[in-house]
Automatic annotation (TrEMBL):
Record key words, sorted: Chloroplast, Isoprene biosynthesis, Magnesium, Metal-binding, Plastid, Transferase
Native organism: Rhodomela confervoides
Signal peptide: none
Gene3D superfamilies per UniProt: Farnesyl Diphosphate Synthase
Protein name: Prenyl transferase
GO BP term (any one): quinone biosynthetic process
Length: 324
């Protein structure tokens, strides 16, 4: 585990440690190339924020705060699905690094990376089926469909300066928020929570996921490559127009020229970042992220005050604090 997990999630540190140990066993395969490719991503670490949230919700909605074996497995499945999506994302975006280390397709080839991502999706599906809960299978399976929908939407709107903030938020749901929303809902299904509780935590996860993606997009503009673990400005370079750029376009129409020429020149992304920082676009994007965080927190503070929500609130605020 990393320092992040140790400090923020003390109450579930044993479960997170077990999760890290189990992940390596779950991706085991007799094919050494596939195993090495899958292990490449997990060895890079990560904050394990998604499974941590699932484990915290499991404790919150279970009698005596006992996390079941099935809920622990769901947290592991969620991390494998997330990791599989990263392999494919890195190929599409042609990223050289992820979390500070070389991406799978850079170490191996695009073909091996695609197969590694498919292998991880297949493994997650097998473990998901073994939960023997049809409603959970249906809920989690929708995530993979949403990933594909999000990638297609992003692909066909590449360098499209007519995209609206609402369309951007919708795409962000498919690419990021669906995973957190559906996983949060599924973990309450596993302890037979009432439908209202399932829906509450679906919406909690949805707003948390949207905020997470918006902040990721802000960091792509404001952070260094060293802090990001991948090159800054990657979204711009790949034609993925995000909240900071869309808000900046309202006051800086000269950005349209850079978009139309698809940031083809070496310094185009740096010029665009400089223009964006001259506006209030980053603050507007922060405000949008905070709006979603507050909606997530509102669900906890209005309906679950008689539960121990401290850790979930801390996780929610952490997402916002990444840009402070």
């Amino acid at each position: 585990m990393n320092d992040f997990s140790n400090s923020l999630f003390r109450s579930i540190n044993p479960e997170l440690k077990q999760l890290n140990n189990n992940l390596e066993k779950m991706i085991a395969t007799e094919n050494p190339i596939l195993y090495s490719a899958a292990e490449q991503l997990f060895s890079a670490g990560g904050k394990r924020l998604r499974p941590a949230i699932i484990l915290l919700i499991s404790k919150l909605t279970t009698r005596q705060e006992i996390i079941s074996t099935e809920q622990k497995r769901l947290a592991e499945i969620t991390e494998i699905i997330h990791t599989a999506s990263l392999v494919h994302d890195d190929i599409i975006d042609d990223c050289d690094t992820r979390r500070g280390i070389e991406t799978v397709h850079n170490v191996f080839t695009n073909k091996i990376a695609v197969l590694a991502g498919d292998f991880l999706f297949a493994q997650s599906s097998w473990y998901l089926a073994n939960l023997n809960n049809l409603n959970v299978v249906k809920t989690i399976s929708k995530i993979i469909t949403d990933f594909a929908e999000g990638e297609v939407q992003q692909g066909i709107r590449s360098f499209d300066n007519q995209i609206s903030i609402q369309e951007y938020v919708e795409k962000s749901f498919y690419k990021t928020a669906s995973l957190i929303a559906c996983s949060c809902k599924a973990t309450t299904m596993l302890n037979n929570s009432k439908l209202q509780i399932q829906n509450d935590f679906y919406m909690y996860g949805k707003h948390l996921g949207l905020a997470f993606q918006i902040i990721d997009d802000i960091l792509d503009i404001t952070s260094s490559a060293k802090n990001l673990g991948k090159p800054a400005g990657t979204d711009l370079k790949n034609g993925n127009l995000t909240a900071p750029l869309l808000f900046a376009l309202e006051n800086k129409p000269e950005l349209n020229k850079l978009i139309n020429q698809e940031f083809q020149y070496k310094h185009d992304t740096n010029i665009a970042i400089k223009i964006i920082k001259e506006t209030n676009a980053i603050q507007k994007a922060k405000d949008l992220a905070e709006e979603h965080i507050q909606l997530a927190i509102h669900i906890l503070e209005t309906k679950y005050t008689n539960y121990n929500i401290k850790d979930l609130l801390s996780a929610s605020y952490y997402i916002l604090d990444r840009i402070k």
